[in-house]
Design a protein that fits this description.
Layout: H1 4-8, H2 28-37, E1 41-44, H3 48-53, H4 58-74, E2 78-81, E3 104-113, E4 116-126, E5 135-141, E6 144-147, H5 154-162
Parallel strand pairs: 1-2
Antiparallel strand pairs: 3-4, 4-5, 5-6
Length: 168
């Protein structure tokens, strides 16, 4: 998607980061932009960037993520981040330590059905909010993401039926 028009109108600000040289822009750069423009919502794509930059030290990575999250909370910013996870089975998930720093975790995944995949979404946690814990199929369209809350993922129907768990 081309964000140029939105940038020209002052509706969004984009800071691009090259990862080829393994150097992040100073955290001060986005913080100054947030303060100067009174930005209320920040999207970080991707948290995996922090991990890549700190291959040598897992603790450095965690400190960097924690510092970033604390600074966002101090400035009362709504922060949305993406991150890559390796999940072998939709029913089994190992939390990373940084997952506990966030108020909410929403998993978007692909589930295999024969020779194709189905995109699904699951809200694992949303601190202080009631939420459904079901797995919902989603569609990504030109209008955005559509969550099909009244459908069972086709990719899970066979699995549930074979295990005697079909409930919907």
């Amino acid at each position: 998607m081309d964000f140029t028009e939105f940038e020209k109108k002052g509706l969004i600000s984009v800071i691009e980061q090259s990862i080829s040289d393994k150097k992040l822009v100073s955290i001060a750069t986005p913080l100054k932009l947030i303060k100067d423009k009174k930005i209320q919502r920040v999207a970080l794509d991707s948290l995996t960037l922090f991990e890549y930059m700190h291959v040598a030290g897992e603790m450095d990575y965690r400190k960097e993520v924690l510092d970033f999250i604390i600074r966002m909370k101090q400035t009362q910013i709504t922060l949305l981040t993406t991150s890559e996870k390796s999940i072998r089975d939709i029913d089994t998930f190992n939390y990373d330590p940084e997952d506990f720093l966030f108020d909410g975790l929403i998993f978007m995944t692909k589930i295999r059905k024969s020779s194709s995949f189905e995109r699904c979404l699951n809200v694992a946690k949303m601190r202080g909010q009631e939420h459904l814990i079901d797995i919902f199929p989603i569609s990504i369209t030109k209008k955005g993401i559509i969550v099909h809350t009244n459908q069972l993922p086709f990719s899970l129907i066979d699995k549930d039926a074979s295990q005697g768990k079909f409930t919907k």
